[in-house]
Amino acid sequence: TPTEKAAARAIWTHAVMVAPSSILFFGLGTALFVFYKAKPELLNPAAASTDMIFPWFIANELPTGISGLVIAALFAATMSSVDSGMNSIATVLVTDFYRRFVPNAPDRTCLRLARWLTVLIGVVATLSAVLIGWLDAKSLFDLFLKNAGLLGSSLAGVFLLGVLTRRANSTGTMTGVVACITTLYVIQNMNPVPIHGYFTAVVGILVCVFVGYATSLAIPGPTKSVEGLTVATLGRLQSEPSKR
How far is 149 from 114, CA to CA, in rounded Å? Predict the structure, then answer.
């Protein structure tokens, strides 16, 4: 986006669209459950995994032309999601790591490196998908929630520490990340699991924020200016444009 205002508009648009799209996705699962509950003889007995039910329905219950369009749409949606993730990872590796250690690297070299990294990331992602296909997972969505809670919660906790607090430092933040991942790993390996998969991410975020903030207070780090970087200082910075 060309401006911060346009970026903010895009974020708010995404936030508004998340709710109805999520309802649509979960509603699809509910509709499939009702359909095969009423007509169990149409379900493939070999479709033990919940991930196989929707493709089975597309291939066997939808008209020929419609099923082709749906499959094409699924491939298109997959490509649009995967390529953006690959490009984002390659950009982060080049911008935040390679340029940090080689600040004078020419743009042509960085572009070539980003392209090779994209190919490498694609290979790793493909091999990971094959590996997951071999695993005895009843639901890829449940597996996604497990891993997203394990890794994504710490990222969200770091973001909240940086935006909502002015005393969080690197030592406290990393301690919060370790505490978050450790806590979620222990919870997910308990039998039975004490909380539902949807709430593991919430627990991880809270652990990261509280442990990270407490550690930052106990072990103060170097004092740095956070003007314009936190919720508390953003308003003050906007009211004093001469100091930007």
Answer: 28
Q: What is the H or E stretch that residue 17 is in?
A: helix 4-38
Q: Read off the amino acid at residue 11.
A: I
Dihedrals phi, psi of 102, to nearest 5 degrees: -125, 75
Asked if the bond preceding 192 is cis, omega within 30° of 0, the reply is yes
Provide the strand spans (E) within the chain: none
CA distances from 16 to 12, 62, 75, 163 (A): 6, 31, 25, 22
- Residue 223, classified by CB atoms within 10 Å of its CB into exposed (0-12), middle (13-18) or buried (19+), is exposed
Cα–Cα distance for residue pair 234/244, rounded to 1 Å: 11
> What integer is the mean pLDDT of 191-199?
76
Cβ proximity of 51 and 94 under 8 Å: no
Whole-angstrom distance, CA of residue 226 vs CA of residue 166? 7
pTM of the model: 0.67
pLDDT tens per residue, range 19-59: 898 899 889 989 999 999 999 888 877 666 778 888 889 98
The dihedral formed by the CA atoms of 169, 171, 173 and 179, expressed in degrees to the nearest 10 = -160
Contact 74, 57 (CB under 8 A): no
Say yes or no to pLDDT of 119 above 50: yes
Phi-psi region at 120: left, alpha or beta (left = phi > 0; alpha = psi -120 to 50) = alpha
d(CA 155, CA 180): 10
